[in-house]
C-alpha cells in the first residue's frame, strides 16, 4: 500500500466518523484508532482540508461505536501548533528522558516541542510562536493526523 492510498484510507475513516478501523490487503494490515476530538477556538482563521474519497470499498473489522468518555467540549484560545505530517507523537527524545515541554513552560520560536515519527524518521516539531504552553492536546505515543492541533501557545 502506497502512502497516498494510506492517506486516502485515513481520510475516509475520519469522514465516516469511525473510531476504530482495520484493513487487510495482500498480506498488509493497517489498523487505525481515532481519539475523540477536542473543540479548539483559534485566534486566527483555520483552514479545513476536504477529505478525498477512496476508490475501493472498505470493510470494517472492529467496533465502530463512539466511546462514552468523549469530552463534551473544551474551549482553548491561543496560537495553535499543528502536526505537519501523519505519525506517532513523542513528547521526549527517549522513553527515559524528560518531556521537551510541559504546560506552563515558556517557549521561543523554533524551540522543539516534541517529535512525530513517520516511517522510522523522527521529525522535530518546533514552536512557531514565542509564549507560554497553555495546553498540550496530544499524549505521548498518540497517532497524530496531518494538520491536527497539538499545542496551544499563548
UniProtKB/TrEMBL annotation:
<keyword id="KW-0092">Biotin</keyword>
<keyword id="KW-0443">Lipid metabolism</keyword>
<comment type="function">
    <text>This protein is a component of the acetyl coenzyme A carboxylase complex; first, biotin carboxylase catalyzes the carboxylation of the carrier protein and then the transcarboxylase transfers the carboxyl group to form malonyl-CoA.</text>
</comment>
<feature type="domain" description="Lipoyl-binding">
    <location>
        <begin position="78"/>
        <end position="154"/>
    </location>
</feature>
<comment type="pathway">
    <text>Lipid metabolism; fatty acid biosynthesis.</text>
</comment>
<dbReference type="InterPro" id="IPR050709">
    <property type="entry name" value="Biotin_Carboxyl_Carrier/Decarb"/>
</dbReference>
<dbReference type="GO" id="GO:0009317">
    <property type="term" value="C:acetyl-CoA carboxylase complex"/>
</dbReference>
<keyword id="KW-0444">Lipid biosynthesis</keyword>
<dbReference type="Pfam" id="PF00364">
    <property type="entry name" value="Biotin_lipoyl"/>
</dbReference>
<dbReference type="InterPro" id="IPR011053">
    <property type="entry name" value="Single_hybrid_motif"/>
</dbReference>
<keyword id="KW-0275">Fatty acid biosynthesis</keyword>
<dbReference type="InterPro" id="IPR001249">
    <property type="entry name" value="AcCoA_biotinCC"/>
</dbReference>
<dbReference type="GO" id="GO:0006633">
    <property type="term" value="P:fatty acid biosynthetic process"/>
</dbReference>
<dbReference type="InterPro" id="IPR001882">
    <property type="entry name" value="Biotin_BS"/>
</dbReference>
<protein>
    <recommendedName>
        <fullName>Biotin carboxyl carrier protein of acetyl-CoA carboxylase</fullName>
    </recommendedName>
</protein>
<keyword id="KW-0276">Fatty acid metabolism</keyword>
<dbReference type="GO" id="GO:0003989">
    <property type="term" value="F:acetyl-CoA carboxylase activity"/>
</dbReference>
<dbReference type="InterPro" id="IPR000089">
    <property type="entry name" value="Biotin_lipoyl"/>
</dbReference>
